[in-house]
Design brief:
The strands form 2 sheets. The chain has a 4-stranded antiparallel sheet with strand order 1-2-3-4, with helices on one face. It has a two-stranded antiparallel ribbon with strand order 5-6. A hairpin with a 3-residue loop joins strand 2 and strand 3. The protein starts with a strand and ends with a helix. The protein contains 7 helices and 6 strands. Helix 1 crosses helix 2 and helix 6 packs antiparallel against helix 7. Helices cover 50% and strands 17% of the residues. It has 2 domains: 80 residues, no CATH class; 117 residues, no CATH class.
């Protein structure tokens, strides 16, 4: 199991302790984990008046059998079929970014998920008030193994910012008739070169 939260840190700690208390017996199905999660949430009446006090994304793996991602807001629990996000403050930012960086209708590859997620968090840190800190990334595999990727997120951010700058400069020049054709072609070539370089680097990552 892996989880991330948004909301009140003290409430999260209390929830975590209650969840761990309830999950003592051997668990054999995702449904059992889901039921335990719902039961743990029922202990916290403060969520009735303010559901935003605690939001969760939780990934469950029954090794080699089942895998499930769920989301909570307050006491409400729902299944996630592709991807989702919590605690983004001004959610209009991510509503804009998600359709142009990820396909909502299918599972992302690990590389796609890591790159898109890193970019969303990067933009939230830049533009959403009180959002900060380093980006942490991890992968929960089908065999139950947890793979932390924190050592690479900073480099991904720098590469993504380089591509963003290339595209920004190209779009600014697109409608400017004072920009010579050669300069526009040079900027276009630079973006294409950087995209190819990034694609080559991605082939060596899992």
């Amino acid at each position: 199991m892996a989880s991330v939260y948004a909301g009140d840190p003290q409430l999260w700690k209390s929830f975590r302790d209650k969840f761990n208390e309830l999950i003592k017996a051997e668990v054999e199905t995702v449904k059992e984990l889901r039921d335990i999660l719902e039961t743990a949430l029922c202990y916290f009446n403060e969520l009735d008046s303010d559901p935003t006090n605690l939001s969760l994304l939780m990934g469950f793996v029954i090794r080699e059998k089942e895998i499930k991602l769920v989301k909570t807001e307050g006491k409400l629990l729902s299944d996630v079929y592709t991807f989702d996000y919590i605690g983004c403050g001004d959610s209009s930012l991510l509503r804009y970014l998600t359709p142009i960086t990820a396909d909502k209708d299918r599972w992302l590859t690990i590389n796609q998920a890591l790159y898109a997620g890193t970019y969303w968090v990067l933009q939230a840190r830049r533009w959403v008030e009180n959002c900060g800190g380093d980006t942490e990334a991890f992968v929960l595999h089908w065999n139950g193994r947890m793979h932390k990727r924190n050592d690479t997120t900073f480099n991904w951010e720098q590469h993504l910012l380089r591509l963003e700058l290339d595209l920004s400069q190209l779009l600014k020049n697109l409608g400017d008739t004072n920009v010579k054709d050669g300069e526009f072609e040079d900027r276009l070539a630079m973006l294409c070169r950087h995209l190819r370089e990034e694609r080559t680097l991605l082939r060596g990552r899992i």
